Amino acid sequence: MLKIGVILGSVREGRNGLAVAKWTTEKAKAFTQGQEVEFELVDLLDYELPFLGTKATAKQEEAIKKWSDKMASFDGYIFVVAEYNHGVSGAFKNALDFLNPEVKDKALAFVGYGGLGAARSIENLRMIAGQLAMATTQTNVNLSLMTDFEKMSIFKPADYHEGELKALLGQLINWSSALKTIR
């Protein structure tokens, strides 16, 4: 059984990402029904991580351990990412900096949302993923605030994104299965 984490990387108040992450998780489960794969939504907001390099409190040390253990439990990931100032959110980059062996030799796909579907944030994350020895899929889902959200806040994705998600899942499952054999 493959375990795929759908990781919501935004902690911003009023974020659109929770609706996107829920859609991604629900569609992924429906599209892979009958396959040996399960999906779990993980919200970064549930982990009160300190800034890397600062002295962590006991509560923050527990959050680091909880984050590390959760990320280590998966065979692959879908990062649901926003784009802030042409890049990945600071909170998500910080959270990734706490990881290395937990994600090494695992597969990663991206569902982005923003003005340009988080394309620049995804490209930024591809470099980070490379340094973490993660394999990224070729296919992304890029959701535009202008066309996939009513009034830039009510998530209403265009139907064609389901086809993109199916292609993304096919690649992610193949990579996750292959990489599981070398860990």
How would you describe what is shown here?
Pfam families: FMN_red (PF03358). The chain contains 5 helices and 7 strands; from the N terminus they run βαβαβαβαβββα. With 183 residues, the protein is of the alpha/beta class. It has one domain (2-180): Flavodoxin domain (Rossmann fold), CATH 3.40.50.360. The strands form 2 sheets. Strands 2-1-3-4-5 form a 5-stranded parallel beta sheet, with helices on both faces. A two-stranded antiparallel sheet has the order 6-7. Helix 1 links the parallel strand 1 and strand 2 (37-43). Helix 1 crosses helix 5 (160-180). The two termini are 15 Å apart. The relative contact order is 0.18. The mean pLDDT is 97.
CATH class: Alpha Beta
Determine the number of helices (DSSP H or I, runs of at least 4 residues). 5
**Number of domains as seen in the coordinates:** 1
Main beta sheet strand tally, sense and closure? 5 strands, parallel
Oligomeric description of these chains: single chain
CATH superfamily: Flavodoxin domain
Helices and strands, in order, run as: EHEHEHEHEEEH
Give the spatial strand order of the biggest sheet: 2-1-3-4-5
Compute the average pLDDT: 97
Which percent range describes the beta-strand content?
A: 15-25%
Report the C-alpha radius of gyration, rounded.
16 Å
Q: What is the CATH third-level topology name?
A: Rossmann fold
Structural class: alpha/beta
Low-confidence stretches: none
